[in-house]
Design brief:
The chain is built from 4 helices and 2 strands; from the N terminus they run H-E-H-H-E-H. It has helices at residues 3-16, 26-32, 38-46, 72-84; strands spanning 24-25, 58-59. The longest helix is centred in the N-terminal third of the chain and has 14 residues, at 3-16. The mean pLDDT is 91.
């Protein structure tokens, strides 16, 4: 198994644990899966779009939908999926990064290593 595959499994296991109605930033995911960086998590999440991974629950640390840079239509889909789960958006299109809407990876029971 390559390091990339191992890292992907760890990140995807983490993201699968994000509850409906909650989000996590790329940075939070990276801190929960050392030694990954937020950028590496973003690259792994870009490959997860057609899998059983709730990719839409991972956002920028400021609540922005970073996938917009890749594809504005995917950002619209991400926003719609989050809204269906009850996640609100600020007037400027960001998820409020408050404890009400941010998942805390330290509380997850998934084995990451």
């Amino acid at each position: 198994m390559s390091a990339t595959d191992s890292n992907a499994r760890r990140v995807y296991a983490l993201v699968r644990q994000i509850p409906q109605g909650k989000v996590m930033s790329y940075g939070q995911a990276a801190r929960a899966c050392p030694p990954l960086t937020p950028r590496q998590v973003g690259r792994l999440m870009a490959r997860a779009l057609e899998d059983d991974i709730p990719w839409w629950r991972v956002v920028g640390s400021d609540g922005s939908l970073r996938i917009h840079k890749r594809d504005p239509m995917l950002a619209q889909l991400q926003k719609s999926l989050l809204q269906q789960e009850g996640v609100p958006f600020t007037p400027d299109g960001r998820v409020p990064m408050t404890p009400d809407y941010v998942a805390e990876p330290a509380t997850f029971e998934v084995q990451l290593r």
